[in-house]
Design brief:
mainly alpha
């Protein structure tokens, strides 16, 4: 089966002149619930990998939203209402980390110079961000690592990667190698951050630890030849499988990590789990249902025992688009812009 083409069509539908709406009612933006910083950050990463005409204006709009959301020292406001007023929601470390992830990726590889320049300026303003929350740190580390790989003069990115690498959790228990007592959400992000940081700093120990954890996670989340992700409530040792509802963010995070593992190692071991992520969206999952709408290009919000949650929110759609982008890139024999730029710089200096 040929995977569907990645498209920003639904994300374009979900964006107005202010930002990207967080939630949807079916395929329609749920305007009354407003906009969220998380989605702008994650959306930036898929926009800069797209060749669609809408990619540049979307990236510009989402980056502008993050510029306005930044409170200082790497902290971002979390939500804006449809009335264009910031809500009283407290600042979230995870949302700030996701915003920095997107800013770092854009500053590293944006094909549009003015957007890349503004992202770099914002990155310097947010580079003081540090967090005690592993996923917030991991998101920021991945974005900073991509920036440092493309520009080793960016000392603020290097510092963020170095500090983050020291605090990222690592597994020690052979019976449950995962560095947390339970799998919770966006799990593959943790090994991806170790791989990205290790690659940026030429730390083979970190890279190998990330690959070990990712390999264990793929095995843990594979059931009868397909991916069976943790439910929204998480899963610990001995918990029954399958369980629901499963979130597309898990497939997106695993695809991100496997694509990075393949780029770093050139080992085809990582292609099959990436393909399984695509197939999960296509219906090779615990409920046997397709998780995207081919008419809209949107992704359904959750896999439930009885089928799919039909709402097509921003987070889920970004996970779908990112997965399809990675699959198209590696299956087509390409490597990431980050890898190409580093290879070109190394050749020039040799």
């Amino acid at each position: 089966m040929t995977p569907p083409e990645p498209t920003l069509r639904h994300l374009h539908r979900m964006t107005d002149d202010t930002g990207l709406f967080e939630h949807a009612i079916g395929s329609l933006p749920h305007r009354s619930l407003g906009y969220c910083t998380d989605d702008a950050g994650r959306g930036l990463a898929v926009a800069v990998r797209s060749e669609e005409a809408v990619a540049e204006p979307l990236a510009e709009r989402w980056l502008s939203f993050l510029v306005q959301a930044h409170e200082g020292d790497g902290r971002f406001r979390l939500r804006m209402g449809f009335d264009r007023r910031w809500t009283e929601d407290p600042s979230s470390d995870d949302a700030s980390g996701r915003a920095i992830f997107g800013v770092g990726v854009v500053a590293a590889v944006s094909p549009w110079p003015h957007i890349r320049r503004e992202a770099r300026r914002l990155f310097e303003l947010v580079s003081a961000f540090r967090s005690g929350f592993p996923r917030a740190t991991a998101h920021a580390v991945v974005g900073a690592a991509d920036l440092f790989i493309t520009d080793e003069r960016c000392l603020s990115a290097r510092s963020m990667v170095e500090d983050g690498l020291m605090s990222l959790p690592r597994g020690t228990d052979d019976e449950w190698p995962w560095p947390e007592p339970r799998l919770v959400y966006g799990n593959a992000l943790l090994p991806e951050a170790l791989i990205a940081a290790g690659r940026a700093l030429d730390d083979d120990v970190a890279v190998n630890e990330g690959l070990r954890l990712l390999r264990w996670l793929v095995d843990e989340e594979t059931l009868d030849g397909h991916l069976s992700f943790v439910p929204a409530a998480g899963r610990g040792p001995g918990d029954a499988r399958p369980a629901f509802d499963q979130q597309p963010i898990e497939a997106g995070a695993l695809a991100d990590a496997c694509a990075r593992a393949f780029i770093v190692t050139d080992d085809e071991e990582w292609l099959e789990p990436l393909r399984l992520c695509v197939r999960w969206f296509e219906g090779m999952n615990d409920a046997g249902v397709r998780m995207f709408d081919p008419e809209t290009g949107g992704c359904f919000d959750g896999l439930e025992a009885a089928g799919a949650n039909q709402n097509q929110g921003a987070e889920s759609t970004i996970a779908l688009v990112a997965t399809l982008q990675h699959a198209a890139a590696v299956e087509g024999g390409f490597v990431s812009s980050v890898t190409r730029q580093r290879a070109a710089r190394s050749a020039a200096s040799s």
